[in-house]
Amino acid sequence: MSKQPKIASLSAMALAAMLVSGCHHKDYQAQIPYDSVAPLGTISDDIWQKQEENGEASDFVIVESEFVGSTAKLNAAGEDHIKQIAVRMASTPFPVVIQPSSMSVAESSEYKYPIHGNDDLDMHRRNVIVKMLQAMNVQDADERVVVAPAFTPGFEGFEAYRAYINGFRNNYNGRGGSGGFGGFGSGFGGGGGIGFF
Predict the structure, then answer these.
(1) How far, in Å, are 119, 121, 154, 156, 181 from residue 116 at the CA level?
(2) What is the pTM of this model?
(3) pLDDT, tens only, 57-94
(4) Residue 17 lies inside a defined structural domain of this protein
(5) Residue span of the structural domain in which 49 resides
């Protein structure tokens, strides 16, 4: 026998051995018991619950727009909000967060624009909120009321302008805030009403 057929047959056998051994693997999925796999959603449920809890905590933030200008007096929305907070404080562990002021005029500034914070005003607002909560029978108000940034940032710049304009567009143009482009209740996305603008 010549060397060429021997080499060819040896290489063919080596190739066949590699192919056969390379295709063989164990079925590892068969070793996992059926009842050890967690039901659908159990891993992500903790994430959803944490997000819901964070959303609940943000209900206890008193934002700057709930005060009358650069004072410690709450406006009507702020008064309603503090009443809702007082009712819920007994059943929740969240702190009451007062957003720091940012619309004060700094005496040392050249142009006197109302764009500065005021630590004295912030502490005065905190004291007013504590007294209001204590008047509504919240015993631990002094320990739970803090001045800190809001959990969620508000709109700024272009986003704020657009939200402000959309608020007027959706609420004051005769559509009753129903949305869409529906004149006389039949247009694209219209929910009824007569659209004049």
Answers:
(1) 10, 11, 17, 16, 41
(2) 0.60
(3) 999 999 998 999 889 999 999 999 999 999 999 999 99
(4) no
(5) 42-149
